[in-house]
Amino acid sequence: MKTAIVTGAARGIGLATTDAFLADGWSVAMVDWDGDELAKAAASRDNTIALAHDISNPQQVDATIRETLAAFGQIDALVNNAGIADFGPIEDTDFERWRRVMSVNLDGTFLMSQAATAALKDTSGAIVNIASISGLRASTLRVAYGTSKAAVIALTQQQAVELGEYGIRCNAVAPGPVRTKLAMAVHTPDIIAAYHNALPLNRYGTEAELAGTVVFLCSDKASYITGQCLAVDGGFEATGIGLPALRS
Asked: pTM to 2 decimals?
């Protein structure tokens, strides 16, 4: 049975990705720093372990790999999904806020990938890093978040180039607007309408749609795909800065 590590697995895209792996017969090491929520999610899912670790902490990252190997014996895929969505104006983003975002979104992705590399060599496994459409096109209030996700995309390419000789494939997924509980809680009707107007498919994506893409990239069906950033965004990137009113 193949094994995946999914970070940020307690909710949202990470939990949906866990379920998609399980549906395909994988085992999953679920990682999240919210231990209580993680335990609830894992309790109802067979073939999982719950690892309440902080991926920005190198010691806890090493523990994640050790505990996964102890439980399942191998690692076939790593999904670096954990992240902080902290938005604010450039002038209000102090260094502490900047570092908090970078420590999880970028440092955690690097640390987890580095720690898992030896095990992934043994299985010719795959890494999928969850970036963001904000790493592909700039927007307001995202100086730390967008920069961190752009760096994740560059990191993915570096990983693909260096690890390809070991058969390890490394790709990124850049979600556009996704209908998560958090997004729906903070997006006003005006924001939702504005996103719909800017999206060629005229709707938010779903967590399941993102999860399906991630699992595909980890599967043998994507055996010749590496070094790519796939925008799962309803066409949002393709619209550039065009005015929605002109499309009608």
From this structure: 0.94
